[in-house]
Amino acid sequence: MQVPFIDLKRFENHLADEFIKKISDLVINTQFIGGKEVEEIEEKLKAEHQVAYAITCGNGTDALQLALRSAGVGPRDKVLLPDLTFWATFEAIVNVGAEPITIDISLDDLQMDFELFKEAIEMFQPKAAILVHLYGWASSNTFAFREYAKQKQVILIEDGAQSYGVTINGESIYKNAFISTISFYPAKVFGAAGDAGAVLTNNKNISEIVRSLSNHGRRSHYSYDFVGWNSRLDAFQAAYLNVNFPYIKRRIESRKKIAEQYRKDLKELGWNIFKPKSLVSKYNSEISQEVQIEENGYLNVVFIEKEKREKLIQHLKKHQIGYGIIYPETISEQKGASPYLKQTLIRNRAKQVSETILNLPLFPYMTNQEYETVITVLKKF
Fold first, then answer.
1. Which of 11, 59, 88, 242 could be disulfide-bonded to 195 (CB atoms 3.0-4.6 Å)?
2. Is pLDDT at 152 greater than 80 in this prediction?
3. Do 236 and 261 fall into the same domain?
């Protein structure tokens, strides 16, 4: 039985019909840019995550650039980021003219290391930092990152591309961030039908600058306060997000249940499946921590020795089982980083993870048969 790494077609039976009806209405009314669909999804994001402002944009990468520019980050400003993240985090810094500095991760949760973060602030005096909530959870030090950045007057932007639906102590990961960003890339937990993104904040001035920058820097139709660019969310993407919105919690619950089942079964089989120390869920509430993080089931993480990983990949391919390696190289190892990366604070932990990580199939409404097929194939390895 073939099992894909991710299946974008796992949505509710009537969803396609709902979307087609919305598209028909938009075409009939020639409502293509802005309008009620965009306004509706922004209002839903504000309410869901208890933030004052939600500004949609063209994609998650633009969301990061909008966040950086709205906070006044520009040429020659230093910006910290984790050495383990998607390339967009790095290129957003470079694209606003700032200087990226990679910081290593903690092996406790695979997020940016808080002690190295503090050391880097003293060492490099950055203007900003991007904290990435990777793999569908977050750092147990998230509150500490926020407080220390505020204390040191470092602008903290939180890249929440992989963390939609993640909670800390029962509240949205985005709620108390100074600025956070979302990617609605189709493969994400909450995906659009194409590219889409958003910036969330509780700061009115930041929200107004983001709104302006994403629409050519406009103050009014032919008056401009900034040199921005066109990163408006189109009505079709907004409509797709609105159609999907009521089902996201259900899909996340499905994902989380599968993620927990992997942890239980693979641990019993002797596999090195990763679980952050602060992670809890209603499926597994065995720990009690001051900071409790509930994941969204975006990804699972298995570690396997470097020399065995390729053999496992060939085994999975032979049995038509999908897989991911997120991510196979660190930021500091990328060829494209070398012209821009002048300073780092790394301890080779991110490199260790990238050389041994493997991600197994995980998507909403994955069937018991599909799951058991994956487990059976792993047992044979």
1. 59
2. yes
3. no
Return the C-alpha torsion angle 305, 307, 309, 312, nearest 10. -120
For residues 185 and 257, membership in a common domain is answered with no
Beta pairing, strands 293-294 & 167-168: antiparallel
- The number of distinct structural domains making up the chain is 2
The pLDDT of residue 157: 98
Whether residues 131 and 197 share a domain: the answer is yes
Write the single-letter amino acid at 315.
Answer: H
| 282 pLDDT more than 90 | no
> In which order are the strands placed within the sheet that holds 167-168?
171-172, 167-168, 293-294
- Tell me whether the omega of the peptide bond preceding residue 283 falls within 30 degrees of 0, making it cis: no
**SS3 of 307-360:** HHHHHHHHHHHHCCECCECCCCCCHHHCHHHCCCCCEEECCCHHHHHHHHEEEC
pTM value is: 0.96
Average pLDDT, the chain: 96
Q: What angle do CA 231, 56, 363 make, to 5 degrees?
A: 110
Whether residue 368 is contained in a domain is answered as: yes
Select from 319, 299, 20, 62 the least CA-distant residue to 183. Answer: 62
Q: Determine the Cα–Cα distance for residues 240 and 343; give it in Å rounded to an integer.
A: 42
Mean pLDDT across 189-198: 98
- Show which of 246, 263, 291 is a domain's final residue: 246
For strand 179-183 and strand 155-159, is the pairing parallel, antiparallel, or unpaired? Answer: parallel
Radius of gyration of the chain (CA): 21
For residues 27 and 176, state if they share a domain: yes
Q: What is the pLDDT of residue 26?
A: 94
Cα diameter, the chain: 66
- Name the strands in the sheet holding 343-345, side by side, starting at the edge strand that comes first in the sequence: 53-57, 197-201, 179-183, 155-159, 128-132, 78-82, 99-103, 343-345
For 273, 284, 296, the CA distances from 281, given in Å and listed in that order, are 17, 5, 10
| Cα separation values, 78 from 82, 117, 127, 200, 304, Å | 14, 13, 6, 23, 35
With vertex at residue 217, the alpha carbon angle to CA 216 and CA 220, rounded to the nearest 5 degrees, is 95
Token match 């900071």: residue? 291
